[in-house]
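Q: Here's a chain of 345 amino acids. Please give me its 3D structure as C-alpha cells.
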Amino acid sequence: MSPAVVVDENVVTIVGIRFRPAGRIYYFDPQGTLYTTGQYVIVETVRGVEAGRVVIAPKKVAEKELSDPLKPVLRLASEDELRLMLSFKSKEKDALAQCAHQVTQHQLPMKLVEAEYTFDGSRLTFYFTADERVDFRALVRDLAATFRTRIELRQIGARDQAKLQGGVGICGKTLCCSSWITDFGVVSIKMAKEQDLPLNPAKISGVCGRLLCCLSYENDTYVQARQTMPPVGSYLDTPGGQGRVVSHNVPKSSVEVLLESGEIIQWPVEQQETRTAPGACGSCGAKGGGCGSCGARSGGGGCGSCASGGACSCSSGAKTDNGEGSRGCGSCAIKQKAMKQRSTS
C-alpha cells in the first residue's frame, strides 16, 4: 500500500484595503512591503489608480481562498497626495449641488445621493437612485464640460443609499450598514415569523424601507432554541395542573402554557415534562381508538407502555407481580384486579 502523498497548498501574501468607511474590504498584493493598519496606499484597481486605507496588515492565506487575481499595491501615499485627496473631498458637496442643478434642467427622474472624487481628481462619480433606468448621456456631457474631468454616474439601491448617507435606526444607534456592515446579507420575512415579531412593515423595516438587517442576527439562535422546546399543542404538567403549550418565549427560555382554568403561565423549559394529548397512545402520542404506529388500542385500564386494553399485546400471557391472572403486562406489571371484579359482578 503506497503512502499518502501530502500536497502543499499555494500560499500568497495579501493586504486588506478599504476605500470607504464601513465599505467592502478588497485584497491586494503588497509585493513584499510591510504595511501597517491605518496607512493610506496607492493601489491599482479595475477602475484605475485609487487611494485606500489599510485595514488588514499583510498576512498569508491559501490561494484557493481568493476569488480574483491580486492587483498590486503601488506605493505608500505621500503627504502631498493626502493633502490633494483632502482638497478634492472638500469640493464634493459643491459638485453635488451643481449636478443637482443640471439634473433639474434635463428633467431627469433621478435622486442624487452623493458625489465622490478620486484622490487625484481624475474621476468624479455621482451616485443616484431611480425607480427605472435613466438615459443620462446628455447629462454626462454637460457635467464633463463643467468639471473638466472624467464623469461616472452610478445607480444604487435603497440599502446602498442608506449606507452612503448614514443615519440613526429605530434602536437609537447609528445604522449598522453605515458603521460596520460590509456586505448585505439575505433577510426574509420568515426570520420575523421565526422570532414572533409583529408583521407590521413600520416596525420591521429600516430607514431604507427594506427589512431590518438585524433580523438575521439572532435568527439561528431562535431556530436552535425552538428545537429544544416542546412543540406548540403538546401538554405539560405544572404545579397548577396540566396545560397546553400555546407559544414559545426564546429570550426567557420558557413556554406559555394554557391551563384548564384558562390561565396562561410562563413555564421554564428546564422543568418541562411533556405529555401527549388526553386519550393518546402512551408510546407514540396518536389520538383516537387505535395507534397507527404501534397498533395498540387506547382503551381504558390498558397498559401504560403500549396503551392496550384488556390483554397486553406487548407481553401476552405474562403474570403480574402478585401472580394473579395470566393477562398482565410484562413491561409494567399492571394488576388486573379491576377486570376480575367486573367479571364476577
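Q: Can you summarize the key feature?
A: The mean pLDDT is 79.
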